[in-house]
Design brief:
The structure is a single chain. With about 160 residues, the protein is mostly helical. It has 6 helices and no strands. Helix 1 packs parallel to helix 5 and helix 2 runs antiparallel to helix 3. The longest helix has 29 residues. It is globular and about 50 Å long. The protein starts with a helix and ends with a helix.
Length: about 160
């Protein structure tokens, strides 16, 4: 029985690691790597991954998970030399992608009932659902927007032309 619990906890940690790797790819997509002020920002990703994992294991509260994930995403955006509004927008978009993947996998496939714990297998599938689109985003970005330095710049130019 203890082996199953340890295996499940390790799978959740691995899933969280995949999720934060996907977050890194999304952040790289929205902000140019050259604008990062930290040379070793992988340390921040490691702390964010382990911190959100600990919060989810200890408290098992959806509200605290949301708060810890949003704070972690925003802290991951902090080392980039971009406007605060861009950091908030990037955090909102990345969290929305995470939320959409959670809704699709956990709500629709698993039949989640509020208050119950989400299985580690579903968390793993959710992490993959968040990671897989990053491959397509980078391909589309490279092909269509080669002249822009960041995707946010593309969105910003489109937004400025509207108003």
């Amino acid at each position: 029985m203890k082996f199953v619990m340890i295996a499940e906890l390790l799978l959740i940690l691995f899933s969280n690691g995949i999720r934060f790797y996907a977050v890194k790819r999304y952040i790289d997509f929205f902000a140019a790597r050259e604008k990062c002020l930290w040379k070793y920002n992988w340390i921040l990703y490691t702390f964010a991954c382990i911190g959100t994992y600990i919060v989810s294991i200890i408290f098992e509260s959806p509200n605290l998970n949301i708060i810890s994930n949003v704070i972690a995403l925003f802290l991951l955006a902090c080392p980039y030399k971009i406007k605060l509004s861009k950091k908030f927008l990037m955090t909102f978009i990345i969290y929305s992608i995470n939320l959409l993947a959670d809704i699709i996998v956990v709500q629709l496939l698993a039949g989640y009932v509020p208050g119950q714990r989400v299985g580690s297998a579903y968390q793993f599938i959710t992490s993959l659902a968040i990671l897989i689109p990053t491959a397509f985003f980078f391909r589309i970005y490279k092909e269509k927007n080669a002249g822009f330095s960041t995707t946010y710049e593309c969105i910003h130019i489109g937004y400025d032309s509207l108003g």
